[in-house]
């Protein structure tokens, strides 16, 4: 056991930090720090900057064009990118369907799609959740019916994050309706740029439209777009969901938001006095620093032991990561106080001519609070995660 | 001590409940919140039930009701998230004007306010202020039988709905309060939507000239009048929030009974049951604190009145935060969307923390009293 | 609705306050304020002072020697007694078996026992809980076998509060082993001063011995000591447990402990500065004041509506009362800090020659914290109470 | 960064785990805690495994192990609630003496401490002090080749077990540290049990005369040495607490699986499952913070070292409080009794908050650093 960073690790951290400082477009950084909405092109620009450096797929092995980094390096990379104001990497290709294709996809599917993910030639989205089946995948209803050339898919997907930009969806659909609920599901790659696909944005609490409903109405999927074997999609789905164990904590996000919080607290006056001098706020900031340091050390422990199967720690990371992100958003809102009251969703657009009556960050601070409530719901609610932990301890 | 509604209170709350359920459905409410201008019909329907004149004494053609009735009424308004300017006009501005020694203003305004034909709001916060309720940069100058006002006010609650604004200003180093027509020469009212379905306005006063008779109060009397507006506002808001919590608990319980997951209704899961139980617990305590706030309004000792109001405000805000978060969590993804009204309640309950003094402000007041 | 105290209520409050000030023995008051252990006689002395005034049974109707007070008066009485430093009234007779006898007991049982309860001629204790049946009364195992003269009882009871002083136990025992779990239970009055009764103290976390195990080994109970009908004890048990709806909140206790907390905070120096000037502590005291004010108003609402059946409010009162008592104990411990570390249970005895190295209240402060953990367990755990609340809302 | 135990760490922790499970059963542990005097056999068995000499460099006949090994060892000790004076002697006094420039003391004491034949403790707190670690009322006077000490020290951890005490005193207005034999003329050591199964002592020094060679350090060097003792003590205590939490979670899980209520094992109730999950969550985070504390010991920047240690201390204390409360609640009534060892863990975890600076103290340090 050695609890110090070695020279290589320190050098790597510096390299990433300097790269982000030098190469991240300034307008994107500004949007990120101001919590303004990023558009499709912002994500793509950043991905391509990374790809040009050879860092397009930090979590992939070298043979598929990835960096081949170990988990500690990936963690350092994530934190430094976030702190520097970079957008998060789109998880749909790199973190989700990419690894599934590497493990279960045919050579031809790999050749067709993987390298394009590094530069976001295709925008992928997720087709897992359905209305009426949130954390409960086994009850999904979308059906893929076999025809001579492939499948015809009918159904409805929901909570499709950034689906409004998507070219492709990886989609769970029922191919055998006789089988038990978890059997008879297949994983299909669906070209969304065809008739029968309808994407409808879902407006959320803060007025944002990051998630969508997607209707699939007699949508065609050729046989070659079936991943692995028919009716074995459940296995791939579990692999996909269980693949990323440390990214779910959002540690990079936490670091950046803490920075923003401290800046806000230093700059904002509460009835004439800097917020940072407020005793209650000081304690809250200190306590959230504690939480972040603890989360990061737990992440390091989990990352370093990544050869072991996923234990309860993955769920702990998810739970705590969510809570901390929520607390950070709440504190930012508290710092801005009553100035967060006036709000119009259009003020969140970067090019909005008018950004509201309050201070620079005021409107976004309250919107961020409401938006962050999602973190304890998506990707397995906190309740589901606790049940997973309990089952592991109690062996029931 | 008696917690049973008397006949009048029962009739009033019953009528109000029917009205709110008929005319404050989620679509109706959201449509009205999307508009800058007051919906006269909706407002008049509230006024017709007596909501606008509740605190106005009978000699000014109101109903002179007790603080207990104030709680009963605002509980109902909160259940329906009524966003019309009841608190800014019928509570705060009314309480403020009642503190005035200017009998002309009282005689002219209060009957109009009680009948619903005049809406007022109190413009007291200035840029850079958060909890302070004394004016700092808005100034009034007295010359030749009139006052000239210059300055900016922010976050005026339903300010664009108001026919007249109570504006605080510094006059000879003291607080002074003026009743200013919203359309007076030199007034610029900019209206904004708010996160929680109200509207608020920034007001710029550029050489606004008002008559001497527009002076509501000055000096200590003005500070007291403003304080009374805040006190009454806090009490009404606590009741409004408790009402909103009540409805949100109902909505959430209903959802748990209906929605199925893993083959069972959500209501079967013990962890969700207990979280719902916590919501009810917080709601009952918040309702109790709304009563405490009402008793405070009848308290003659100023320190004790403020203590009780601050206790109530902090407590209700905390309960609102907790209940709002729980309601969204128990609904899951769908609770994050604008499709349900869960989010409307959540946002209303969240932002009440910041209005009329945030938790930090009220805790400070309480801590100062603790040290004695 | 009228939210002000009327003149009568105000006068009554003053009367009680002055009575307690004048008549409560000073040595008892001192023990209570210092959290020292009360002995048997302390309780009895106070009960007899009250009985002499005609206040021996504040919750009983006049016909049985009670005061006939309404719920608001009882609440005022409870608060004023506690604030004045009086011991709590022994609940076993007055609050538990007394009301059951009034409703279900024969005239002869009433005549025999009720009036003696006012002066604690008999010390009663509870015989409900058994090892293995905590919140789950239906599974009790103590058996009462019919003989010619009465019952012979065998079994073991536990958590018998102050059972070491008891003369009599009201005891649930199974009289029909064939019936369903909740049937076939009878309520018996057992004279503990007979062979076959063994009382063993249970040492708790803080070294105290307030609770006991009681073994009943061929103990005789004449038929006349059966309450109501054989096999219907479950009904009486439920009545007994549901009878007192507001006392469970411990509002009087909360008021007194808040007072003690404030005194401690004013008198204790933390590294030279009065604890009360500590910003964190100030906020905590303010917040617990909020909790107590809210609890008291909820109590008033419940008490005023006592004609309605017990709603979820009774469970809310129990949950919140427990939490507040626990928080108060924790804050007292926090104020005393590291000085609470040295501890010997004998320091809690009033006549201990030596009361430890710390400040006057130091040892008791930490012992109180550990002891108060019981409040969320006994009388229906917080978990059980929440399930009750949820069932009432969800109607399941 | 590497979290895998190396071979030596694995062997050491394995042996320690066996020893603790054999000789720190609840009865054995309680019996020893009931005694004033040190149980030499138990102490020696720990020393024989290297526990006493862990931090002592090889040139003083110890093992010179890294902070990482310190964590590994104290995790094991915490699991068994080992109450022998490992932290006061093998960690705090050792770290303190290692900071001394007095080579004679180091050469004489450290080998004896490492072998287990000398136990020391640090007497730094005085009546009226809580978190301060500078002496205030204990004074040292230098005359004629010796020092004379007068004053009182309180809450000396396992003070009655110590053969020598490190005593802090004011010397010419500065901090000075002396190594004083417990049986020196004028020393009165009064021993007390503690709530959490340790012992502590009040020490009175009445004209205690020590040789010049007994001066460990003075001035800044003495303050640094004391700070180093506290820093190491905090790190060890965090690991000890994390170990205790680990075992308490195990005990509680076992109980939930075994105990039945309402016809089902408690483990079937979702609310109890989730509370157990919370316990595990807090335990994992506390363990992580024990690692953070260990990394802090290797940090050369003093402000950053304190920051990390204070973060760890606050966090571990909070986790301990929460886990202790949950363990008792999940056990129900039986958890309130001295029959089970649940309470032993609960009490240990509770009182660690107060030792070596309470939460308020460490938060203050952090808040000061925050403002910069």
TrEMBL record, chains A, C:
Single GO cellular component term: plasma membrane
Domain Acyl-CoA dehydrogenase/oxidase C-terminal, chain residue ranges per copy: 231-393
InterPro entries in alphabetical order: Acyl-CoA_Oxase/DH_mid-dom, Acyl-CoA_Oxase/DH_mid-dom_sf, AcylCo_DH-like_C, AcylCo_DH/oxidase_C, AcylCoA_DH/ox_N, AcylCoA_DH/ox_N_sf, AcylCoA_DH/oxidase_NM_dom_sf, Mycobact_Acyl-CoA_DH
Needed co-factor(s): FAD
Keyword field contains Flavoprotein: yes
Domain Acyl-CoA dehydrogenase/oxidase N-terminal, residue spans: 8-120
Keyword Nuclease applies: no
Domain Acyl-CoA oxidase/dehydrogenase middle: 125-207
Keywords attached to this entry: FAD, Flavoprotein, Oxidoreductase
Molecular functions (GO terms): flavin adenine dinucleotide binding; oxidoreductase activity, acting on the CH-CH group of donors
Similarity section: Belongs to the acyl-CoA dehydrogenase family.
Protein name per Swiss-Prot or TrEMBL: Pimeloyl-CoA dehydrogenase large subunit
From TrEMBL, chains B, D:
Domain of life, source organism: Bacteria
Cofactor(s) of this protein: FAD
A matching Pfam family: Acyl-CoA_dh_1
Start and end residues of each Acyl-CoA dehydrogenase/oxidase C-terminal domain: 228-366
This protein's UniProt keywords: FAD, Flavoprotein, Oxidoreductase
Domain named Acyl-CoA dehydrogenase/oxidase N-terminal: residues: 6-116
GO MF entry, a single one: flavin adenine dinucleotide binding
Residues annotated as domain Acyl-CoA oxidase/dehydrogenase middle: 134-207
Record-linked Gene3D superfamilies: Acyl-CoA dehydrogenase/oxidase, N-terminal domain, Butyryl-CoA Dehydrogenase, subunit A, domain 2, Butyryl-CoA Dehydrogenase, subunit A, domain 3
Family to which the UniProt record says this protein belongs: Belongs to the acyl-CoA dehydrogenase family.
Protein name: Acyl-CoA dehydrogenase
